[in-house]
Amino acid sequence: MAGGPGFPDFRALRLDDRDVISRHLRSYQPETSELTFTNLFIWRAHYGWLWSLDGSHFILLSSRPGAEPYFLPPVGPPSRAGLSLKLLRWLREERSVNRPRIERADGRLMAELASVASLRSEPTRDQYDYLYRTENLISLAGSRYHAKRNHISRFSQAADAKYASVGESNIAMCAEFQDRWCEKRRCAEDLSLLGEWESVKEALANYPGLGLTGGAFLIEGRVEAFTFGELLNAETAVVHVEKANPEIPGLYAAINQRFCREHWSRTPFVNREQDLGEPGLRKAKLSYHPFRLVEKYRIWLAE
């Protein structure tokens, strides 16, 4: 099939697949943070992402060694009920999966599959994305953001920090900071942090080709915080990575506000991805008072 492999053939994601895959994703205008080429590309080794096309639909298969394969929701026009059933039955028949499943399905797919009797589903709260009004993240107005404003004020008074867009002049410094951050957090001893470390290195190594937008704070000539993201849909930016030196008070709040102000002020919403069930991360994301949570679901074949 023109533009990529046709189901049931698959291939691994490559950087030169960006145009083909992004075209499918842009046409769908996703709300869930997984569905950008950058996210898929930088996590491709961790999840073993393979891709294929079926007519006008884009298909993603997780083939991580040692783990049971599953699909992300097929991307394309409705109705996807027949295709979803075909994919799940293929997992059972060709990959010998006892309970074939689609992970991180959005509300649109759920609505399309509502009448399919052979499918079951459940919400996956740990995967819900946090969606914010951009103006709230920039202005931090009102009593509920009082603590955030204080944190940023203390940071501004204490640190002689310079903000810069991430680009050729400072990508290497961002990578050096990420290594310092991981050394303090012992990423090599934590599988989830190790996977994230590898994904950030992939993003920085391929930064120009991925078309990302990023920002960094430099203090005394060193990067001490950086973040990057991109448009998820016409009204929403998604922040893929945000790292800051935890020993500098207020730095996380400052980089979040400045990044939104400098780059996304004309974009109504910001998706700051999921919390993965980590209590500290959930508390931090809730402290910014999301506009809403973007729900995701697990769907499996019950026939």
Describe this protein with a few key phrases.
single chain, 303 residues, alpha+beta, Aminopeptidase, 2 domains, 4-stranded antiparallel sheet, 14 strands, 38% helix, globular
State the strand order across the main sheet: 8-9-10-11-12-7-13
The number of distinct β-strands equals: 14
On the 0-100 scale, what is the average pLDDT? 96
CATH topology of the largest domain: Aminopeptidase
Q: What proportion of the residues form beta strands (DSSP E)?
A: 15-25%
The parts where pLDDT drops under 50 for at least 5 residues are: none
Q: How would you sum up the global shape?
A: globular
Ends: how far apart?
31 Å
Approximately how much helix is present in the residues?
Answer: 25-40%
| Highest-level CATH class of the largest domain | Alpha Beta
* CATH architectural category of the largest domain: 3-Layer(aba) Sandwich
Count of helix runs: 12
- C-alpha-based Rg, rounded: 20 Å
H/E element sequence: EHHHEEEHEHEEHHEHHHEEEHEHEE
Structure characterization notes:
The chain has helices at residues 18-28, 37-42, 44-47, 81-95, 107-112, 134-139, 146-158, 171-185, 191-205, 207-210, 251-263, 279-286, and strands spanning 11-12, 49-54, 57-62, 70-71, 101-105, 119-123, 129-133, 161-165, 213-219, 222-233, 236-244, 269-271, 292-294, 297-301. The chain is built from 12 helices and 14 strands. α8 (171-185) runs antiparallel to α9. 38% of the residues lie in helices and 25% in strands. β9 (213-219) and β10 form a beta hairpin. Strands 8-9-10-11-12-7-13 form a 7-stranded mixed beta sheet. A 4-stranded antiparallel beta sheet has the order 1-2-3-4, with helices on both faces. Strands 5-14-6 form a 3-stranded antiparallel beta sheet. It is globular. The two termini are 31 Å apart. The chain folds into 2 domains: 11-128, 3-Layer(aba) Sandwich (Aminopeptidase), CATH 3.40.630.30; 129-273, Gcn5-related N-acetyltransferase (GNAT) (Aminopeptidase), CATH 3.40.630.30. With 303 residues, it is α+β, with helices and mostly antiparallel strands.
